[in-house]
Amino acid sequence: MRFKIILLLVLFSASLLSCGDYALFSELDKNRLIVVFKGTYESNNPRPFINQYGLPGGINGPYVQDDSVIKHPTAPDIYPQAFMIDIAEMKLVDVKGKKFKFSNYRQPLVFFFSDESPFYNGGGYVLKNDDVPNNVYVALMLYVRKMMFNQAKQYTQGAAGWTFVQDVPGLFEEKIVLGGYDINLNLINSYTDSLKLEGMYINRIYPILIPIEGGLYFDSQKTKYAVLEVRIPVKNYIKKYESTISDITGLSVVHHYSFSDWLRDVHPNETNMGGNILTIARGYFPTFIGRISGTAPANSLVIAIPQGEPITNYTTPAPVPPYPATSLRNICDFPPIPGYNAVSLDSVMDYFLEFERYKYEWNQVAPPTGTCANFALYQAEWNAYELEKGNFKIPPLATWANSAGNYVLENISPGSYDVYSTDSRTLDNLWYGQLVYDGGFSTTPVNIVVPAGVTVTANPTYP
User: Fold this and answer.
1) pLDDT value at position 321?
2) What is the pLDDT of residues 183-199, one digit of tens each?
């Protein structure tokens, strides 16, 4: 097959079908189950795109560039302009575990980073699908051929230092995208998966299993439309990573972009980055919904979760010393050994410097003086770590209070909810790419009941 190298803008324009100014259901009268795809942590009214170049250090600073980038941390990189996802098919899973294929359509989609895009503004992009039998569904299986961000760049090391080699070519929809880096291979396993004997059989990305919060009760005879909202946080949740290429020509690195590692921290020289694609789905009926509105701390994150559910399901522990102070892992987290490349004197010297750092970090963990005293503790720590990380969830309902403290949560299924808020987030504390730490939400939630057709007032405070 003969491929054409084309400009990224041309590919994007040809690949993405815009929703335009049409209402959500205007073209879907024959389909009663509507799948709405969003690239935001928030369910409605998300934060605008943060200016990454205005953050401390720009895209080479600690907000955007991951601390695992150690070989060429000052590279002249460029922030990506788009997220690309090639969906192969979708299936729903009912309460008995039976799978229903309801979207056997390939959907290659490219979403430019813009606050006007439905994928990023809270409105959502409508996916193509068929209806399913009347049933109760608890999960969505999303089969993804590829996921990409652009602006991946390769650099090589020589006597004069690091030099730019190329915009890494990637293949999307059978076309070459310069700077396109397929992150699927990095997301198949988490680091914890790689420690297990059965790790080679674990695949977190094909399919992506997305729980449906509260289930989807689909009955086409009782309601005109049902909406399945599916969210993958992309907007403001992207970080830059580094992978190494060693061959006879020397040492090269590729700088590429992927989802933030705020849940499962990525260390230098690691390629297993799975478990950091965060997802949530929820179902509702547009003719049977309510709203929540009120005031909260200005520029704060406001969420509503099922009443009585622990708020710690939606937070992550803060970094805890002794090793390493910036890690979100555990006291038995051994550093990976750096790769060796002896093509040039520079690469050899860099290797020995990196190896000295590796030995120091190893000794902080290894017995007899390190934090991980024995194998039993090693097993217990990693099992506890994976359990804690596996229980983390994206809140089903989330939005941001504006500078006056006003907020609205929309399209809410009737029920009982706890409403929380964080403290005020100013321009100096934007939480780019970060999740909420334990204790980051209100100490006491506002307990409310939301009926259909009613806007309920809730005024959460912090702490």
Assistant:
1) 45
2) 998 888 777 777 777 77
pLDDT reading at 226 higher than 90: yes
State the CB neighbour count (10 A cutoff) for residue 404. 9
Alpha-helix runs per DSSP H in 280-438: 345-365, 375-390
Closest to 433 measured CA to CA, from 240, 260, 274: 260
Query: What pLDDT was estimated at residue 248?
Result: 56
Is 234 in a helix, a strand, or coil?
coil
Mapping DSSP onto H, E and C, the string for 51-116 reads: CHHHCCCHHHCCCCECCCCCCCCCCCCCCCCEEEEEEEEEEEEECCCCEEEEECCCEEEEEECCCC
The model's pTM: 0.87
Question: Strand, helix or coil at 289?
Answer: coil
pLDDT, tens digit, for every residue of 66-101? 988 988 999 999 999 999 999 999 999 999 999 999
CATH of domain 290-316+392-463: 2.60.40.1120
Predicted local confidence at residue 327, as pLDDT: 46
As a whole number of Å, the end-to-end CA separation of the chain is 60
Q: Collapse the DSSP code of 253 into the 3-class scheme (helix H, G, I; strand E, B; otherwise coil) and give the result.
A: strand
Under a CB-based contact definition with an 8 Å cutoff, are residues 246 and 234 in contact?
Answer: no
CA separation for the pair 304, 301 (Å, rounded): 10
Structure tokens at 442: 């209100």
Q: Which residues contact 370 (CB under 8 A, 6 or more apart)?
A: 323, 362, 363, 364
Residue partners of 450: CB distance under 8 A and separation at least 6: 290, 291, 292, 412, 413, 414, 415, 416, 417, 456
Span(s) in the chain for CATH 2.60.40.1120 = 290-316+392-463
